Automatic annotation (TrEMBL):
A cellular component term, taken from the record's GO annotations: plasma membrane
Membrane-spanning segments: 6-26, 38-65, 71-95, 107-126, 132-151, 172-193, 213-236, 243-264, 284-301, 308-328
Protein name stated in the entry: Sodium:proton exchanger
InterPro entries: K/Na/Ca-exchanger, NaCa_Exmemb, NCX_ion-bd_dom_sf
Places the protein is found: Membrane
Length: 329
């Protein structure tokens, strides 16, 4: 087995460990909270919201702290691109997806505004402590918005997903099961992050490409697999609002929560995270274009048809092809 292939296997193994670890951590924490009598809304807006983003948070912070900023930022930007072009495009190829559910319009605006803010804050080619604090405040404001919307009984798909704690914590068992789930999650997350950062940095070095390319492609695609699975199931069950809410909520958390904690952690221990100028060449603009596209569908009230799904999916394939051509040619 060649060295680049070994590095790729290490990254893929890290993603698998990371996703399973995050799932165990969330399930154990939710089950523990339910046993403590904590209201489902509070559990959803804290444990579920941050727990489902834990894999991305851990790997981005680990990458930034290990001197691999391209992986850290590439994970955020690449995941947001994949969430729209792939996670919405692929299911729509099979079943058209409606975009008129309550709350989707506001979440589309917030998701797009979050991406614009991220680009603006990192325009100086740095994600520093100040930027991290601003983004962290953003996730706090977003959670407050969700809490207020929930109290007004708004049928927001993002809230529905976060507050479905019965399914999240199911099957964990008693105290022993909770303890085992939490232990697996706490141990697996840093192991997965280490495998990804080490393998990703080595793979980029051996292929002669920037680390950001690995973050934008392999890592972003791997961490977007749960959203893709959820969207496929939701689309087949004719619950397109769940799929769209899942993508929009994930993109907001990628920017505000993952970007925020990465900026704060790196800013407190280093000078921040250096942003590769290559992000301003293609990737940032693809992320903004993807966010604008889904917002346009939502505001026009147009379903994402099979034709539109094909355009989104082919757009993702074209984006990956462009990255390969730019960096490998």
């Amino acid at each position: 087995m060649t060295e680049p292939l070994i590095d790729l296997v290490m990254v893929i193994a890290g993603i698998v460990v990371l996703l399973f670890g995050g799932d165990f951590l969330v399930r154990g924490a939710v089950a523990l909270a339910r046993k403590g009598g904590i209201p489902p809304l509070l559990v959803g807006l804290t444990i579920v919201a941050f727990g489902t983003s834990a894999p991305e948070m851990v790997v981005s912070v680990a990458a930034a702290m290990s001197g691999a900023p391209g992986l850290a930022v590439g994970n955020i930007v690449g995941s947001n691109i994949a969430n729209v072009l792939l996670v919405l495009g692929l299911p729509a190829l099979m079943i058209p997806m409606a975009t008129t559910a309550p709350g989707v319009r506001r979440n589309a605006v917030i998701a797009f505004a979050a991406s614009v803010l991220f680009v603006a804050l990192t325009w100086d080619r740095m994600l520093d402590l100040r930027d991290g604090v601003i983004l962290a405040v953003g996730i706090g404001v977003y959670l407050l918005y969700l809490a207020i919307a929930a109290s007004r009984a708004q049928d927001d798909p993002v809230i529905q997903e976060l507050t479905d704690v019965d399914s999240v914590g199911a099957g964990v068992g008693g105290r022993a099961g909770i303890a085992v789930s939490l232990l697996i999650g706490v141990v697996a997350l840093p192991i997965g992050a280490h495998l990804i950062v080490t393998g990703g940095a080595d793979l980029a070095d051996r292929l002669g490409v920037p680390e950001s390319v690995i973050g934008l492609t392999v890592l972003a695609l791997g961490t977007s697999l749960p959203e893709l699975s959820t969207s496929m199931v939701a689309a087949f069950r004719r619950h397109a609002e769940v799929a769209i809410g899942n993508v929009l909520g994930s993109n907001v958390f990628n920017v505000f929560a993952v970007g925020g904690i990465t900026g704060v952690a790196a800013g407190m221990t280093q000078n921040g995270v250096a942003i590769d100028p290559e992000f301003f060449r293609v990737d940032y603009w693809v992320m903004l274009a993807a966010g604008a596209a889904i917002a346009a569908f939502v505001f026009l009230g147009r379903p994402i048809s099979r034709g539109a799904g094909a355009v989104l999916f082919l757009g993702y394939c074209g984006y990956i092809g462009a990255l390969a051509w730019i960096n490998l040619s």
